[in-house]
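sry for the spam today, last one i promise. struct tokens for design, 279 residues
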């Protein structure tokens, strides 16, 4: 039986992963240094063990720790990792930035959730309300093998599917492609635009539109406009007036060269900010 260690098992993602790995056909050990995290795990019947006790025997080590400490933590444990072990990072930032150990015998694998899609076939109420994923709602995941034999991919992907379950699709990409997806696409672009939409909605309320009216209106329009733009309504397109409004507004709201955020230099800068909080 393969041995799996979850580092940072009592953190936000560590707790999710630990819960979902219950019943997996692996021997699971949990490592958590904070007392609060240990207490959180004890509440759900999970006991922690010292890293020095379990890491040397682990076939797979899940790095459920913050991006800005992954480098420091894995360097401290580098000599303890089992030869040929698989390190699974939950985000592309640290692997992209070269923060993980340089030991050639270690496999570096990255697995990140897509989160449940807006357009889905969920009918269960709890699943419909599982916006983050990993509880009831089905989601896709994206995986990448940064370094190591391709034979390790299947095991690492299986662990990823179980810790992010229920998973409906698993996509294989490169680490650089994952860095384009996040932080660039999902945070630099999507989170920014959505934050502006929320701020604009608040501005409409400030100018006298009742809050309930503004929220119903914008959330409904987000639903139909996303459905049109992401090909969920074949043959339907936005009106000529809406397209004209978009054409004019993009020139007023966005810098003409906004797509420069996809350039490698911009990605590297963004990831440095993630992996080095004092950068």
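last one done:
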């Amino acid at each position: 039986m393969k041995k799996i260690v979850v580092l940072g098992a009592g953190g936000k993602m560590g707790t999710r992963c630990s819960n979902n790995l219950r019943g997996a056909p692996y021997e699971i050990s949990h490592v958590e240094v904070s007392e609060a995290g240990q207490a959180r795990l004890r509440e759900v019947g999970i006991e922690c063990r010292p890293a020095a006790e379990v890491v040397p025997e682990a076939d797979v080590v899940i790095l459920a720790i913050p991006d800005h400490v992954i480098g420091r933590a894995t360097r401290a444990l580098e000599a303890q990792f089992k030869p040929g072990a698989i390190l699974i990072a939950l985000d592309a930032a640290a692997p992209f930035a070269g923060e993980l150990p340089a030991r050639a015998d270690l496999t570096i694998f990255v697995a990140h959730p897509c989160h449940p899609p807006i357009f889905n076939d969920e009918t269960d109420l709890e699943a419909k309300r599982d916006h983050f994923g990993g509880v009831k709602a089905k989601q896709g995941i994206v995986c990448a093998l940064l370094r190591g034999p391709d034979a390790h991919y299947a095991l690492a992907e299986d662990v990823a599917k179980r810790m992010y379950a229920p998973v409906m699709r698993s996509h294989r990409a490169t680490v650089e492609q994952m860095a384009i997806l996040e932080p660039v696409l999902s945070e630099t672009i999507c989170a920014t635009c959505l934050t502006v939409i929320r701020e604009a909605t608040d501005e409409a309320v400030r100018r006298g539109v009742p809050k309930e009216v503004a929220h119903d209106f914008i959330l409904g329009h987000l639903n139909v406009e996303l459905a049109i733009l992401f090909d969920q309504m074949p043959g339907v397109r936005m009106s000529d007036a809406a397209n004209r409004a978009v054409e004019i507004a993009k020139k007023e709201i966005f810098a003409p060269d906004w797509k420069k955020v996809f350039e490698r230099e911009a990605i590297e800068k963004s990831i440095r900010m993630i992996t080095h909080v004092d950068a």
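Strands lie at 3-7, 27-31, 60-63, 86-89, 107-113, 139-147, 167-172. ok im logging off now
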